[in-house]
Amino acid sequence: MLDHTVSKGPTTWYLMAKYNFHLLLLIPLSCVKNGYNCDVMLVVGAKKVQILVSASFLSHVSVMFEKMFSGGMKEGNPLTNRVDGQQARIELIDDNPEAIYHALKILYGSDPGSFKLPPRTIRDVSIFADKADMVQRFKPICSLWLETAPGSVDRPHLQAGFDLLVASYWFDHGEGFFIMSQFFVRTDIPLLEFALELGDEPLGLRLALAIEELRLANAYRNETIGLCLDCFVAATTTFVAQQPGCRRTRRHLVL
Q1: How far apart are CA 228 and CA 218, in angstroms?
Q2: Following DSSP, what letter does each residue of 106-153 receive, concatenated?
Q3: Whole-angstrom Cα distance, residue 130 to residue 104?
Q4: Contacts made by residues 207-211, CB under 8 angstroms, sequence distance 24+
Q5: What is the DSSP string of 175-209?
Q6: Nearest to 58 by CA among 148, 147, 128
Q7: 69: DSSP letter
Q8: Which of 185, 216, 222, 238 is 20 to 30 A (C-alpha) from 205?
Q9: Which is more confidently placed, 164 or 187?
Q10: In whole angstroms, what is the distance from residue 244 CA to residue 236 CA?
Q11: How high is the mean pLDDT of the chain?
């Protein structure tokens, strides 16, 4: 469910979230004061949720949108050809509207609630952030989101841990990836179900295989070491071995 609250302040967004009508309006206060409104309508997901936002803001926070609106992508043509007073419609049918909603609020800096987003939402934000080439802008908040493992190993906490493991991968956050993979070493529950539910089956299966190999390697050596993200990405024969050029010795078992 989207956040329907409107916070007050000199740099806040005026928010209108009418989810029943599939409309989400994001207008910076500066836009209102200066007499202009948002010029882009993002049409997101299968339900075609509409998100209104300014092209200048999107270009500032996302390399993908910057290229799109500067003429580097045909998807940006609606902005170039738009009629004054109307929004350019940019369709993102394969994306998650709630993830985009939270991503934009976080990057604008008006959402204190972002510190307490659920793991599934954090995962979905990470997927969009990678697609839109805005991962680097989330680095400050990633430390808060991804560096504390779940406190239990029951089913909901395991799902949360897997969601945060995936988010650590897409956010390119090595510390979070190490911590979340280390969390799974303490369990023996198969991860195939989580892997197949991910939607990105190749990544899900790769993560599940890596965790199983990590469990065996740790059990053999009576250790609880997590995975190195850089070496996980580069791995072709084993997920636990330190790859050539990796200097993160403490993130590897002595094989």
Answers
A1: 14
A2: HHHT--GGGGG--HHHHHHHHHHHHHTT-GGGGHHHHHHHHSS--S--
A3: 14
A4: 207/162, 207/165, 207/166, 207/169, 209/239, 210/181, 210/235, 210/239, 210/240, 211/181, 211/184, 211/185
A5: HHHHHHHHHHHT-----HHHHHHSS-HHHHHHHHH
A6: 128
A7: I
A8: 222
A9: 164
A10: 12
A11: 81
| Residue that has been written with the tokens 């909603």 in this structure | 101
DSSP structural state of residue 45? T
Q: What is the C-alpha to C-alpha distance for residues 165 and 22, in angstroms, rounded to an integer?
A: 30
pLDDT in tens, 59-78: 889 998 888 888 765 554 55
81 membership: H or E segment, kind and range: none
pTM: 0.81
Write the CA distances from 101 to 11, 50, 52, 177, integer angstroms.
17, 10, 10, 25
Q: Give the position of tokens 């070491």.
A: 225
CB 194 within 8 A of CB 204: yes
